[in-house]
Amino acid sequence: AFLGLILKSKYDGIGKRESIDLSIALDISGSMFCTDEKDTKTRLDLAKEALIKLVSIMDENNDRLSLITFNEYSQKIFGLLNKTEIQNNFIEKIQSIKPEGGTNLVEAVKAAMDNLNINNENNNGRKRIVLITDAHYNDTNEQLFNLIIQRFYHL
What we know:
The chain is α/β, with parallel strands linked by helices. The chain is built from five helices and four strands, in the order βαββαααβα.
């Protein structure tokens, strides 16, 4: 399993890149407790490591991140926070997350989109949703597609 996310842009070194708001939706369903062939760590452990690394490379002043976990339901762990606000107890919050239940990808996307829409202070920056999942979902692709189309036309 591999997750790569780069927060640099073609403008790095030339000036300042735009700020970014990331709404992370982390799959905590039971299948995230599995390991893949060559890994000794669970999928969730690998995702947690990636999140900790992501926070470490965030721009202190420009970037904000929120975290939502999901299985059958979504739960906001924290809303959009900057790097300093996140680091206070981020690792403890992340490490306490345990996998259970099914996977409702539609609920995850909806919650992540709602979180970005609620926090409109970053009107000049970029807003992105990052789904961290093993894609063993219980809802249909058609439901997800319809949700995304409906929501993006209303942003």
